[in-house]
Amino acid sequence: MAENPQLETLLNRGVFEIVVERELRERLKEGQPLRLKMGFDPSRPDLHLGYAVALRKLRQFQDLGHQVILIVGDWTARIGDPTGRSETRTMLTEAEVNANAQTYLQQFFKIVDKDRTEVVWQSTWFGNFGLTDVLNLTSRFTVAQFLAREDFAKRFADQRPIAITEFMYPLLQAYDSVAIQSDVEFGGSDQKFNCLVGRDMQEMMGQRRQQVFLLPLLLGTDGRKMSQSYGNYIAFEAPPNEMYGKIMSTPDEVMLDYFTLLTDVPDAELLEFRWAMEAGGVNPMDFKHRLAREIVTQFHDAGAASEAEGEFRRVVQGGGVPEDIESVSMAAVTLADGLVTIPQLVDALVTWGLAASKNEARRLVTQNAVEVDGERVGDAPVAIRNGSIVRVGKRRYARVTG
Question: Which of 171, 184, 206, 359 has its CB surrounded by the most CB atoms within 10 Å?
């Protein structure tokens, strides 16, 4: 029997890898509060559930008495990727970085305990860095070491360019660990190389090496890695109905991962879920409703979760219309004998905000994803009148007025 069931759950549930687990266990036995490092570049203003995986682990460590050191990567975020190759490293102004950072922090503290978190800004140490300091960092590692990183190795083998700046990011992230004297660094499984560089740099500079706590990457609503750039993410700040609906739209095969990584449902109960699904004696949608309630309750409250479930069952599963939908203007279309042509409808969908572009609107019409008053739009002109309900996809509605 484990000496501390809470600790065993912490070190085993939803964990990709711990480097080095034996050393981390020894540090925990010492009984001293550990400094837990988590860094983020405020390149965008919102967080999604993928971030919640690591933040929930941080909160669990906090509940055991450990200290979170949250690093705001304001310095590296302003550098961006000068080559323009990276969508996630666009060059930002100081004002943009600061604005994003403030929204990030508000969202972080939905999960992490603010009173047990120290927030530090990367520019505190990098703001005074000179060329000598930069060269000192680069002298500690070789190009061969960095080409061992999987994505660098693949690009090098394919003779695709690698900017010198890209080699700098692991060094800068590593120095963050030195600057705050990190005991444990948390990150996604794709951050292993960078975290290990930090571990090596600490030893070079006479510090005790940090442990590395890696979490699985959460998949998005389309089965790919959850990412803002893919548009498949579920934001912390999403309204309850939207959050509930997006969780219900995730593939069945990722559902148990969501339960494991994003909820406190006991392992024994999750095992029963798995057995029931494998036996085929239960509808996966029943479990998915449970999952959606759990997550919406975390980010909103139980009342909001209950209302969102009712709305989903009535509108999406029951074919009803939401009670509160936006009104759009009839002026966006020109009627001929009470009918609207498909090109006119495509333009109107963009004007009404039901499609991001004409190309998307045409694709939605072609895929039979657009309805007017319950009738799917085809190739022929469609009747639209005052009070008509336009539905795009499963959850976008508008009432035409005027």
Answer: 184
Domain 326-401 belongs in CATH node 3.10.290.10: yes
Show the beta-strand stretches assigned E in 105-183: 117-121
Kindly report, residue by residue over 276-303, the tens digit of the pLDDT: 888 887 788 889 999 999 999 999 999 9
Asked if the domains at 240-317 and 326-401 fall in one CATH topology, the answer is: no
Measuring CA to CA, how many Å separate 288 from each of 134, 293, 308, 321? 50, 9, 13, 22
| Alpha carbon distances (Å) from 187 to 38, 234, 274, 401 | 7, 19, 27, 49
DSSP letters, 52-99, are HHHHHHHHHHHHTT-EEEEEE-HHHHHH--TTS--TT-----HHHHHH
Alpha-carbon distance of 287 to 172, in angstroms, equals: 43
Domain 240-317 fold? Tyrosyl-Transfer RNA Synthetase (1.10.240)
DSSP string, 3-41: S-HHHHHHHHTT--EEETHHHHHHHHHTTPPPEEEEEE-
Instruction: Convert the pLDDT of each residue in 168-227 to its tens digit.
Output: 889 999 999 999 999 999 999 999 999 999 999 999 999 999 999 999 999 998 888 998
Of 197, 68, 178, 204, nearest in space to 125 by CA? 178
Quick: pLDDT tens for 333-354: 777 777 888 888 888 888 888 8
- Report the sign of the C-alpha dihedral through residues 253, 256, 262, 263, in that order: positive
Structure tokens at 311: 């709305």
User: What architecture is domain 5-215?
Assistant: 3-Layer(aba) Sandwich (3.40)
Alpha helices in 207-355 (DSSP H): 240-248, 255-262, 267-279, 284-299, 302-312, 342-351
Q: How many CB atoms lie within 10 A of CB 102?
A: 13
The residue ranges of every structural domain in the chain are: 5-215, 240-317, 326-401
